[in-house]
Amino acid sequence: MGWISGMGFVDLVFISCALVGCVFFIVRLFLQFLGLGGHDSSSDLSPGMAHDVPAGSDGHDGSSDSGFKALSLQGLTAFLMMFGLVGLAMMRSFRSELLALLAGTLAGAVAVWVMGKIFGGMRNLQSSGTADLGTAAGKEATVYIRIPAKGTGKVMAPVSGQLMEVEAVSEDGTEIPSGVKVRVKRVEGSLLYVVRS
Fold first, then answer.
1. Cys-Cys link to 80, which of 17, 34, 50, 187 (CB 3.0-4.6 A)?
2. Is residue 167 within 8 Å of residue 152, measured between CB atoms?
C-alpha cells in the first residue's frame, strides 16, 4: 500500500479507471464463454440508443444480436480500460497530467471506435452469412413451436444444407401443432409460409 500513498490524484484516477475497465472486461469475457453474455441493450446509458426486442420479433433471437453501442457497458468498459492504461503509462513516462489525460482520452475513444467496427463486422457476417432462407422453399420442415391460425410459430427447416430454427406462418390460415410435418410454400423476408405436408 506504500506505493499507492505515494501516488498523485491523477495517477489514482488512471489506476481506478484501468482496474474497473479490466475487471468488467474479464467478467464479461468469462460470462460470454459460459454463454451468459447476452444482449447488452438493457445496460445502455442512453435510453434512446436501443431498446429490448422480444426474441423472434424481428426474425432472430435477441441474444444473438452482436450489436455494439458506444454508450453501453461494452463501450464504457473499453473506454475506461484504455483510458486508464494509456493515461497511466503516459503519466509515468512524461509526468505531464495534460498529456496523460489527452492520450488516455484519445486511446479510450479509439478503443470504442475499434470495438464498434469489430462488432459491426460481426453483425454484417451474421446478417449476410451463407444461410439463404430462399433455399428452404419447397422443402419439408417440422413444426417446432406451434403455428397459430393468426401469428407466427417456429419450424426446423433445411436452410443452405443445415437444419435451422426459422419463424413460420400458416399459408392457409389454419393452426398447425408442434411436431407436424409441413412443406414450405414460399419465403418472404425472414418468414416461411408453410402448409401441412
1. 17
2. yes
Residue 148: C-alpha distances to residues 59, 101, 179, 184 (Å): 17, 59, 14, 16
Q: Of 47, 52, 54, 55, which Cα lies nearest the Cα of 72?
A: 47
pLDDT digits (tens, 9 = 90+) for 3-38: 566 678 888 899 999 999 999 888 887 887 786 655
Q: How many residues does the chain have?
A: 197
Question: At which of 93, 127, 161 does a domain end?
Answer: 127
Containing structural domain, residue 153: 133-196
pLDDT digits (tens, 9 = 90+) for 94-139: 888 999 999 999 999 999 899 888 877 776 665 444 568 888 899 9
Q: Which of 78, 3, 2, 10 is nearest to 40 (CA)?
A: 78
The pTM (predicted TM-score) of the whole model is 0.49
Residue 22 sits in the same domain as residue 49: yes
123 shares its domain with 32: yes
- The secondary structure of the chain in percent helix, strand, coil, rounded to multiples of 5, reads 45, 20, 35
Last residue of some domain: 74, 93, 127?
127
Q: Is 88 in a helix, a strand, or coil?
A: helix
> What is the DSSP code (8-state) at residue 129?
S
